[in-house]
Design brief:
Elements: H1 3-32, E1 59-63, E2 71-75, E3 80-86, E4 89-94, E5 106-108, E6 111-113, E7 120-121, E8 127-129, E9 138-139, E10 141-144, E11 147-150
Antiparallel strand pairs: 1-11, 2-3, 3-4, 4-9, 5-6, 6-7, 7-8, 10-11
Length: about 150
């Protein structure tokens, strides 16, 4: 084989390997950018996930009287937030912000608060302020007599 043929073969291999690298890098960048979160404000916030009623392993977490209508309570030991947006309508959420996983700090007036980056959620768990775009993760909750049961 002449040195001209070796140089062409080497150049062709380099071109092929380089081209494959460019394609792989492009695919990786596309995968990283395809989360659907463009950083722009959304006009419609998705509704919180609906859940089934508490099951047989349900646990009493609070008294109905402890959760004010139009407000809520933080149950730190259970890592839950329980709200009552309207009389008799209870909601339970895992007390972790959907933005970057910070622990929620409580309920002030009619907002669930994340202290890390200023996200605020309404009593239905939908984000209304700050960087969070997704609703809080729900837990099934029901009033059974004077108890609130989650499970």
């Amino acid at each position: 084989m002449s040195s001209d043929n070796l140089d062409r073969t080497a150049l062709t291999r380099r071109t092929l390997i380089g081209g494959a690298g460019v394609v792989a890098a492009g695919a990786a960048l596309t995968a990283c950018g395809s989360s659907g979160d463009t950083g722009e404000a959304r006009s419609a916030v998705p509704a919180p996930t609906t859940t089934a009623p508490p099951g047989p392993d349900a646990e009493v977490v609070a008294a109905v009287a402890d959760v004010p209508v139009g407000g809520g309570v933080m149950l730190e030991s259970k890592r839950l937030v329980v709200t009552q947006p309207a009389e008799g309508d209870f909601r339970a959420f895992i007390a972790i912000c959907t933005h970057q996983g910070c622990n929620l700090s409580g309920v002030e007036d009619d907002r669930i608060i994340c202290p890390c980056h200023g996200s605020r959620y309404d009593l239905d768990g939908a984000p209304v302020e700050g960087p969070a775009k997704r609703p809080l993760k729900t837990r099934p909750v029901a009033a059974r007599g004077s108890d609130l049961v989650v499970g």
